[in-house]
Design a protein that fits this description.
Shape: elongated
Number of helices: 6
CATH architecture: Up-down Bundle
Distance between the termini: 64 Å
CATH class: Mainly Alpha
Largest sheet: none
Number of domains: 1
Helix content: over 70%
Structural class: mainly alpha
CATH superfamily: Ferritin, core subunit, four-helix bundle
């Protein structure tokens, strides 16, 4: 796939993802799900801006380059904890989930999985190291988003099991 076509496709995927997350955030009642979807929409906007920046450079026959991306990377756990803390501040009690909310989150999970796969496959097709690094960044972002959504689904469907799996409590005998 040519670089220009790749960036056009990536831009469309990110825009579609952002629109889906914003629409989903407007439909869910669960505060954690709402926070997650809003944060994902914000991340997609950042990706859109970076893709546009790269696209502009190649259409002007300039070398592909984007702003520094290393400082943006955070672990999935850190990301989830920050969003969870925000959700708790806005709602004393996380509202019970509804079936539609789970459908939205499961669709989001599928979108992130497909985006990750697309970016990962495209890395091998590119020769420019900066393009490869950018695609690797996007792939890792989609993987982080996938983990965030997966954790959110696990938490809102069964918080006790989620806590046990994530926190790995130590039981003392006596």
């Amino acid at each position: 796939m040519e670089l220009q076509e790749l960036l056009q496709r990536a831009l469309k995927m990110e825009e579609d993802g952002r629109n889906f997350y914003l629409e989903g955030a407007g439909r869910v009642k669960n505060q954690l799900a709402k926070e997650v979807l809003n944060h994902l929409a914000d991340d997609e906007l950042d990706h859109i801006e970076r893709i546009k920046e790269g696209y502009e450079r190649i259409t002007k026959n300039e070398p592909f380059a984007t702003k520094e991306i290393q400082g943006l990377k955070r672990s999935s756990r850190e990301y989830f904890e920050n969003i969870f803390t925000e959700a708790q501040k806005k709602s004393q009690e996380l509202i019970k989930h509804e079936a539609e909310e789970l459908d939205i989150l499961k669709t989001a999970l599928d979108l992130e999985s497909k985006s990750h796969q697309f970016y990962s496959e495209q890395i091998g097709e590119q020769s420019d190291e900066q393009v490869k690094q950018f695609l690797d960044f996007l792939a890792s972002e989609e993987y982080r988003h996938y983990n965030l959504i997966f954790n959110t689904i696990q938490y809102i469907t069964n918080p006790t099991d989620w806590y046990y799996q994530e926190e790995k409590p130590i039981f003392e005998g006596g």
